[in-house]
Write a structure and sequence with these properties.
This protein has 219 residues and is mainly β. The protein has helices at 48-56, 120-124, 181-186, 208-217, and strands at residues 2-6, 13-18, 23-27, 31-34, 39-44, 63-68, 75-79, 87-99, 104-108, 111-117, 130-143, 148-160, 164-167, 172-177, 191-204. The chain has four helices and 15 strands. A hairpin with a 6-residue loop joins strand 1 and strand 2.
Length: 219
């Protein structure tokens, strides 16, 4: 399988070439173009009840699409995301990784998608009660609204709510005020998320909630 991320960083998409017999899974509605001979099947995202949990608590679709090449020649597929922005790939070799809601785009057949309790602290920080956990073997592709910034954390790091898109499962998220009460309210920052632990995190340079608030002010 050949997968290339093109049009980085503003309008990234996945250019996929599947060899005979190969399979790739993708988020519902991610397909932009595909060869007419590719087979596509819609499946529950980890089963019916698991799919419901991922939809309502993980921000993902109830269904996930399976694309398989059952011919004897290579076939192409193009996968996109709903928002303009960048994409990244994370290779899993038996370990796990956490994705924030809406970040997942596609993954190899050896990658499992699960849901875990994130805690009330994550919910208060507007990061959701549950976190999406990808595990297993193979590549997982995820996207962001805006550019993607990688950062190696050792100890503690402050991230504005809505900008964290992926992190190590051992890391803890704790909401807090950006500064004092006066500064947090009148400085416009409000709540932020303190990331505690060690490992790599991925951040998006834009925030959908921020865009919605800006649009509402001008309506």
């Amino acid at each position: 399988m050949r997968v290339e991320i093109k049009a980085k960083p503003a309008f990234a998409y996945l250019d996929v070439e599947l060899q005979p017999g190969e399979i790739i899974f993708a988020e519902s509605d991610a397909m932009a173009t595909m060869h007419a001979d590719l087979d596509m099947k819609a499946k529950f995202n980890g089963g019916f009840f698991s799919g419901l949990l991922k939809k309502f608590f993980g921000g993902e679709s109830l269904f996930i699409n399976q694309f398989q090449n059952n011919t004897s020649q290579p076939l192409n597929l193009t996968l996109t995301q709903a928002t303009p922005g960048d994409m990244e790939v994370r290779n899993l070799n038996g370990e796990s990784y956490c994705l924030q809601k809406g970040a997942y785009i596609a993954s190899d057949a050896g990658v499992k998608i699960g849901l875990k309790w994130a805690g009330f602290g994550s919910w208060i920080g507007r990061e959701g009660l549950f976190k999406l956990v990808v595990s297993g073997y193979g590549n997982v592709y995820f996207g962001a609204y805006g550019g993607i910034v990688e950062h190696e954390v050792t100890g503690e790091y402050i991230v504005d709510s809505g900008h964290l898109i992926a992190y190590e499962p051992t890391m803890k998220l704790k909401p807090q005020l950006a500064g004092g009460i006066f500064s947090s309210i009148f400085g416009g920052e409000g709540l932020v998320t303190k990331v505690k632990g060690s490992g790599k995190i991925y951040l998006q340079t834009r925030n959908i909630s921020g865009l919605a608030a800006w649009v509402n002010r001008h309506l």
